[in-house]
Amino acid sequence: MAGRWGRMVPERRRCASLVVEDEELLARLVAEVLGREGYAAEVVGDGRGALARALVEPLDLLVVDWMLPGLDGVQVIKRLRAAEVGAPVLMLTARDQIEDRVEVLDAGADDYLPKSFAFPDLLARVRALSRRPLEKVARSSQKGSFPYRGPFPDPSEDVAVPFK
Ligand code: CA
After folding, report:
1. What count of other Cβ atoms lies within 10 Å of the Cβ of residue 75?
2. Could you tell me the pTM of the whole model?
3. At what angle do helices 73-82 and 47-56 cross, to 10 degrees?
């Protein structure tokens, strides 16, 4: 199997991710899949634990379920954003109405994935999220520059898009 931990990451530091999900089996599967994509994935099963973990050390990615014991996923994301944690967040949710998606994105999630999802879909979204802020996230993960102060590149930095 090509997916053993640590196998596909050329950089000396693996990306750090946190999977926040109280369904143990799903959490383990997501963590394993992230591992194949080059993320060292920790699993936390509740909202307060997630918050405690994410506020202590910089993360490169969070995958957060909405329905969690204690603090729900949307509350977790709001509190992280309020604390200027800018790491990309992918929300998993069984709720998939338009207003649910709006709530998730307005709370500060970068993307969402309705349950039940296919792992290739999860990975494609993770790749998309990691491409977007890659440089800044990498910098934010270095000592002394945490918290990272914005998930998106400043549009004024590369405005030269010719419309012809
Ligand atoms: Ca759940």
Report:
1. 16
2. 0.74
3. 20
